[in-house]
């Protein structure tokens, strides 16, 4: 835009207040109000004007409006000297009213669907995780090739279904983040946690083994089936509920990222960490620990999500700022896990586990606080944060390289010290370098996220296996780790 555009907009706002000031002698001045048309309507409005030699259409127009008092068309544009000027075309000079297009200054705004592609692709990928496993648990006696074909149809159909579902929907990155987390929450996290809780807190599987009720499944337990049906229905339900939530603005993807981080941290780190202080998972019967941890995790996942919303407040959070606690928190947790190994711990197995849990939780909390408070005025872009994470990893590798070059053997301590030191040095160096290497832009709101759990389509060979029913029962009871990536 020209350098005078700023002054032109000021001039236009003055023009829009009224065609003329009221005469000082007038007791009842008449107020002229100009309502503005959307830019997409300019051509339709200008086509009504006859004899427009004084106006060069298209190139230099600043704004177009209509005087609500007398229906005159008002145009503000740059003149030949690049100065803003007002052009008024009386209603009487316009073309016949029958030719006037049905337009309104309050025309509907075009839908924001900047996050639609992200949602469609992620939904299809997650369906490749949810449904192959769910089908084999829900229909244990069905032919494996039939279930494989059904899985493939579901994965492909989910892409077109997501397309149809979002056809007329506002889909900024904030809203899409809520929908995606909803599908993860009810399609992946909760079914597995509920199955783990029921398996250890009830005798439901034992009743099936005794033949009550009369159906007896070979290798597929009752909790497997509960998990399967919950996943299949929870996946689309989570998407629908996420589309109805109003926690964030439609474009506030960074805030959703931060809320998801607090949800997963509170749920999985503290949900499985805190019960270690009250139960022994290494004993002959770990049922009490698994019952408590799965129940606590189910409670903390939504609590952490809500807490993240409150911590973020009403301020805008860039995509990179929302992701930075992931990097610093994980780095702090790994440091807390590694540092105690420098000391000669002479405890029993449970004491060591509790010591490592303590240092990990403290390190994770400290790293999270660092990510939240470090240079709070900087709105990092997503790729700046990616660079900081990559720099942390590069620093850790470089630190470990030195004891390797020095041929240090039979002593892990130099590797731990140099690895942790190099990782943190890489973090701070990467943060400093990222601010000089990257430009920040409003387009950063488009940085999108993808979260999938493994396995997914990898389960398809199991469906075709002759030993499918018995091998399915050996799927781990604890939730699968997540793979986080953004594109």
SSE layout and pairing:
Blueprint: H1 5-17, E1 34-36, H2 42-46, E2 61-67, E3 73-78, E4 84-89, H3 116-138, H4 144-165, H5 173-201, H6 204-209, H7 222-244, H8 253-273, H9 287-312, H10 319-338, H11 349-373, H12 382-405, H13 413-437, E5 450-453, H14 460-464, H15 468-472, E6 482-485
Antiparallel strand pairs: 1-2, 2-3, 3-4, 5-6
Quick overview of this protein structure:
This protein is an alpha+beta fold and 487 residues long. The protein contains 15 helices and six strands. The longest helix has 29 residues, at 173-201.
Provide an overview of this structure.
The chain is α+β, with helices and mostly antiparallel strands. The protein has a domain of 95 residues. The protein contains 15 helices and six strands. It has a four-stranded antiparallel beta sheet, with helices on one face. It has a two-stranded antiparallel sheet with strand order 5-6. Strand 2 and strand 3 form a beta hairpin. It is extended and about 95 Å long. The N terminus and C terminus are likely disordered.
Defining key terms:
487 residues, alpha+beta, 4-stranded antiparallel β-sheet, two-stranded antiparallel sheet, 15 helices, disordered N terminus
Structural class: alpha+beta
Order of helices and strands: HEHEEEHHHHHHHHHHHEHHE
Relative helix content: 55-70%
Q: What are the low-pLDDT stretches, counting only 5+ consecutive residues below 50? A: 1-27, 97-108, 208-217, 445-459, 470-487
Strand tally is 6
> Could you give a short account of the major beta sheet?
4 strands, antiparallel
Looking at the structure, what is the overall shape?
extended
Strand order of the largest sheet: 1-2-3-4
- Discrete helix count: 15
- Report the C-alpha radius of gyration, rounded: 31 Å
Strand proportion: 5-15%
Report how far apart the termini are: 31 Å
Compute the average pLDDT.
75
């Amino acid at each position: 835009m020209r350098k005078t555009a700023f002054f032109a907009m000021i001039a236009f706002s003055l023009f829009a207040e009224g065609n003329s000031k009221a005469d000082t002698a007038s007791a009842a001045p008449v107020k002229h109000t100009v309502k503005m048309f959307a830019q997409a309507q300019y051509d339709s409005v200008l086509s009504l004007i006859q004899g427009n030699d004084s106006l060069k259409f298209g190139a230099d127009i600043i704004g177009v409006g209509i005087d609500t008092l007398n229906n005159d068309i008002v145009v503000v544009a740059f003149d030949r000297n690049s100065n803003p000027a007002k052009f008024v075309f009386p209603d009487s000079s316009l073309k016949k009213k029958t030719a006037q297009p049905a337009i309104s200054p309050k025309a509907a705004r075009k839908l924001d669907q900047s996050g639609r592609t992200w949602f469609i692709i992620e939904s299809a990928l997650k369906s490749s995780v949810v449904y192959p496993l769910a089908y084999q648990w829900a229909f244990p006696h069905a032919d494996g090739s039939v279930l494989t074909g059904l899985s493939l149809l579901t994965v492909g159909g989910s892409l077109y279904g997501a397309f149809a579902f979002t056809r007329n929907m506002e889909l900024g990155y904030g809203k899409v983040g809520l929908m995606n987390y909803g599908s993860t929450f009810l399609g992946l996290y909760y079914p597995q946690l509920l199955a783990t809780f029921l398996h250890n807190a009830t005798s439901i599987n034992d009743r099936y083994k005794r033949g009550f009720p009369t159906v007896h499944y070979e290798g597929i337990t009752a909790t497997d089936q509960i998990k399967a049906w919950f996943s299949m229905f929870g996946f689309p339900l989570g998407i629908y509920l996420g589309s109805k939530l109003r926690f964030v603005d439609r474009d506030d993807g960074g805030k959703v990222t931060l809320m998801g981080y607090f949800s997963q941290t509170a749920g999985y780190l503290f949900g499985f960490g805190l019960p270690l202080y009250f139960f022994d998972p290494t004993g002959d019967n770990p049922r009490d620990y698994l019952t408590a941890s799965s129940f606590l995790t189910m409670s903390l996942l939504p609590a952490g999500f809500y807490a993240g919303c409150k911590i973020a407040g009403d301020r805008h959070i860039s995509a990179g700022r929302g992701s930075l606690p992931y990097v610093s928190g994980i780095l702090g947790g790994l440091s807390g896990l590694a540092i105690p190994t420098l000391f000669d711990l002479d405890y029993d197995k449970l004491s060591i586990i509790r010591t490592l849990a303590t240092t990990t939780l403290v390190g994770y909390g400290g790293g999270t606080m660092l990510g939240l408070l470090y240079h709070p005025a900087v709105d990092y872009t997503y790729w700046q944060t990616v660079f900081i994470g990559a720099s942390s990893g590069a620093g850790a590798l470089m630190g470990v390289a030195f004891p390797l070059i020095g041929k240090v053997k039979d002593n892990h301590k130099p590797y731990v010290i140099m690895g942790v030191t190099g990782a943190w040095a890489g973090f701070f160096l990467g943060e400093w370098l990222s601010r000089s290497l990257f430009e920040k832009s409003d387009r950063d709101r488009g940085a999108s996220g993808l979260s999938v759990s493994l396995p997914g389509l990898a389960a398809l060979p199991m469906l075709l296996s002759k030993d499918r029913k018995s091998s399915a029962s050996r799927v781990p009871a604890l939730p699968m780790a997540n793979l986080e990536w953004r594109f």
